[in-house]
Structures are given as structure tokens and as C-alpha cells.
Amino acid sequence: MRVVLQRVLSASVSIEGEVYSTINEGYLILLGIENEDSKEDIEWLVRKICQLRLFNDEKGVMNLSLVETGREVLVVSQFTLFASSKKGNRPSYIRAARPETAIPLYENFLQSLKQQAPSEVRSGVFGADMKVKLLNDGPVTLLLDSKVRE
Length: 150
Fold this sequence. Notes:
Blueprint: E1 2-15, E2 18-23, E3 26-32, H1 39-51, E4 53-56, E5 62-65, H2 66-69, E6 72-77, H3 99-116, E7 121-123, E8 130-145
Parallel strand pairs: 3-6, 6-7
Antiparallel strand pairs: 1-2, 1-3, 1-8, 4-5
Helix pairs in contact: 1-3
């Protein structure tokens, strides 16, 4: 699994011109799932996301976690995180999990995050054509990969 995690002041997802989900301060998470992903990948990522110290303390230092601050989370599925542009100019998405594999993992990821995060966890709709708006805070953006684990 791969995640692009962005600290945001606000974020929203619209589908067919209608706002579907919105959050205030917290994380916008773009989630990519590949065929080899499992419950262990979910557990590692969710634990890491909840414990990362990316929110400012009273001194303005990134020293507080999602758990400590109770900030919100918006999760959006994004198969293009596993794009390969090694050959030619048209990316290949062969590493991205097919819906029959990805949807249960996506739903398990959401459930696990909802259990461990102290605040609201919202999402987009898997496979939908979504428009994502965000106001990046910092900007603070991290790439997490459950296979690399760094």
C-alpha cells in the first residue's frame, strides 16, 4: 500500500458536482492498493498515520500526532499511485489491485483507521470520478509505503 499524506487546513471530495465529504484541519490521505497488500500492510500504515507527529505544538514545532490532536481525516482511493512510467509515455497500472481485491482492503483500511483515529474519518467513493480540493498546511506532504516502511 502506498499513501500520500497531506496535512491540510481543509479538504473535500466532490462527485458529479456535489460535495460528498469534507473535513477541516487534519490529513488528506490518497491511498493506493496493490495485489500483494494484506491486513499487515493496513495495520502498519494505520498505526504510522495515527502516530506520526506532524501537527504543531504550542511552540510551533511539529510534535503532535493525529491521536493527540483529534484532527479529521479524509481518505481517497487512488490507483495511480502504483503507476509505472518505465516504458514509453503511457503509464501502466498493472501493479494496482483490481477492484475485487482493492475494495475489501480499502474498506478494511477505513474501518481500522476509524477504530484508531480519535476523530472523524471520511472518505470518497472507491472507483468514482472524484474532484479533490485541499488547502495544504505547511505544506506538509509525506509518502508512505507499507513495503518499504520508511
